[in-house]
Amino acid sequence: MFELKGYLKTKSRIVESALNNLFTNCISYNLLSAMNYSLKSGGKRIRPILVMASRDMLLKQEVKDPIDYHNVMPLACAVEIIHTYSLIHDDLPAMDNDDLRRGKPTNHKVYGDAVATLAGDALLTEAFNVLCLLSKHHEPEKVIDVIKYVSRSSGMNGMVGGQVLDIENDGVHGVKPDLDYLYKTSYGKTGELIKASVASPAILYGTTKDVDNLEGYGKAIGVAFQMVDDVLGATTTKEQLGKSAHIDEKNNKTTFIDLLGVDETKKMATKEIEKAKSFVSSYGTFAQPLISIADYIIQRNH
Fold first, then answer.
1. Distance of alpha carbon 106 from alpha carbon 111, whole angstroms
2. Where are the alpha helices (DSSP H) in the chain?
3. Whole-angstrom Cα distance, residue 301 to residue 41?
4. How many CA atoms lie within 13 A of 81 on its CB side?
5. For the purposes of burial, counting CB atoms within 10 Å of the CB of 32, is it exposed (0-12), middle (13-18) or buried (19 or more)?
6. Sequence ranges of the domains in the chain
7. Spatial distance between the Cα atoms of 265 and 29, rounded to a whole number of angstroms
8. φ, ψ at 177 (rounded to 5°)
9. pLDDT in tens, the chain (302 residues)
10. What is the dihedral of CA 265, 178, 151, 23, to 10 degrees?
């Protein structure tokens, strides 16, 4: 019987080992320290684990030896590096102005606004350098397609675009968010990188149909992830979350909770999770990790 807790623990160890070997030299020790401070601060590592789970499902292969992931690990590391950069920038005074992340002081609280900003810039830039390592194991055309895909998902029509929509949802920019606006924001700032994590392996190992299925899965769990975040942000404490609670209320942002209430938001998130699972159910037992991760998203408490 599949056991998610052990699966996540095993896969996250593989990710941690790979990340620990990435950034060891830099002309500025302070910059290197700031980059690794956030990159190695723990976290769920859901995005790189999605990369590995997607790869295993497409190849119908249960990995016994971590070295078998060497041909996809640059992608797994890259999406986590991009995610980490986004968190550093999210926490800056000009954005969410938060002082706690994963139970530790945020990057700018330790290194100052300027170095934190540049640490995020460096991580984003280096992520694409890491992605290029895929060329050791895959056809150049496929690697270029993955780089394009991750770039689009991270950029102005993906994560960064969604972050700007989120910034404009502050009661100051004249935006009056409705449900469609919140969906669009969530797909952008959260769902796009999750989608890239789970769908990019299909560019390397699958078909166009596989890409479509995994995009559907990724979009659905992405918006569900944000809905659950809104619920947790409104109903739990800073100690439980490992970051500041009620931050959206503090920043005057409309959330799914404001429009739907807690119970209805939970119901909507559950519908998204069921939708996600429907996209991968046809892959049989090798889809079990993705199905269990979808269930985990709706059940998590931090």
1. 9
2. 4-20, 29-39, 46-59, 73-90, 107-111, 113-131, 140-154, 159-168, 179-186, 192-205, 208-235, 238-241, 247-250, 256-260, 262-280, 288-299
3. 19
4. 28
5. middle
6. 4-299
7. 45
8. -65, 130
9. 889 999 999 999 999 999 999 999 999 999 999 999 999 998 899 999 999 999 999 999 878 788 889 999 999 999 999 999 999 999 999 998 999 998 899 999 999 999 999 999 999 999 999 999 999 999 999 999 999 999 999 999 999 999 999 999 988 888 889 999 999 999 999 999 999 999 999 999 999 999 999 999 999 999 999 999 999 988 876 666 555 655 666 667 899 999 999 999 999 999 999 999 999 999 999 999 999 999 999 988 76
10. -50
- 78, 128 Cβ separation under 8 angstroms: yes
Class level of CATH domain 4-299:
mainly alpha
Structural tokens at position 166: 């989120």
